[in-house]
Amino acid sequence: MPQAEEKGDVWRSIKPKVVTADSDAQQCNLEEFPCPRCRRLSIDCIGHGQQRYKFKNETSELVLARRPVSKTTPISNQLNKNPCNGLSSLTSALIHRIGQDVDIKFQLTWNFGGFLAAIPRRLGTSAALDAATDVLVAAHTGYCSGRFAADPWVLAKYTRALSVLRHDLNDMVKARSSESLCAVLVLAIAQLLIDPNKTHAITHIEGAARIMKSRGFVKPKDDFERTLISTLRGPVVFEALLADTIHFRSEDWKTLNEQSPAIATLPEGQWFNCMAAVPDLLQRSRAALKLYGTPSLHLLPFELETRSLLDDCRSIITTLRERLHGYDPNKQPPGLRNHLHAHYLRSLALALGTGIILNCVLSGLEGTLDYVREESSRWSDEIVLLAVSATQYQPLGSMAIELCLRFAWMGAASAEAREAVNVMLADYDEACL
What we know:
There is one protein chain. By secondary structure, the chain is mainly α. Strands 1-2-5 form a three-stranded antiparallel beta sheet, with no helix packed on it. A hairpin with a 2-residue loop joins strand 1 and strand 2.
């Protein structure tokens, strides 16, 4: 092979040139072999008129000096991006959105569930989950930038995700997979960011409840499924209160709580046990009221059950209130101070709202009682105070407080108290729009 000539530290740009042996001063006379020229150059003689290659400098301007690579080479001259595809880009975008360094005001994991942290490693295994995650990333990006009204390109992604999810739900195996259940919950979260009225998010939660019921309340197969079901418990139980389309037995609710033993012993787990008993109690109480009317001895078992739940709820409220009042941010890691405070505010507000609901059930069974009205009024005022404190974490860090304010309106005993609740509701609605 032709090789370039090297002289010192200079590499010369070279180009092959076809010449003949007789193109030089000496010629092959075919009488002497090897010819004088080839013998003088110590090369093989290939005969007169045969072609051989000779390398010759093309121009002096192309002479390049060999120089050591400078350590201060500008970054602009180097590659600054790694090769990636659509899946890796989506994974990177999601990791950026769920990072713990994100402010609690826009934090996804702390506000909607730790299951989100396990989604990146599952991307690529389910088309429905990939499409739903794409919607969540796009919706959260717009929400954080102040574009609360959904952009057309976000709605286009959402429409595509619904189509992909519908296709997977037609497959019985995929429909019962944890990835499909996760896709439904991810779409519900995305819808909260897209739709200010949150009506479609309710539809997604109802769909998740149906999937959970069709799967059966069996032991989760891994930590991801356990965390996912633990996150779904709260939204499903509240939708069961607000909509008459979710019907779980009391044993089903109990099984859901037992599937997360690490949480069951915490105040939050105790609250869920209390709250999960309310939908089934409401359904049975309504049926008894229609059948027997009031007053009736047939309602006594329901009254006793409601009072027992109220006693449990009061104990939980006391525990959560003491935890919040004893909270010292200086004893917490800097990155978790606001996160824990927002969580404590939310947990107490939810427990107070549950107490108001139970008092309303007791009033419906026994008639209006003065001490019940006074207790609900106190809890309503306390929720308003918690809502004022939680405004520093708007919009996402205090989203659950908005639901509790609606329970506070139910427990308000005067027109002035209801007006105070309405003012806070208007403030929260404006923060989310």
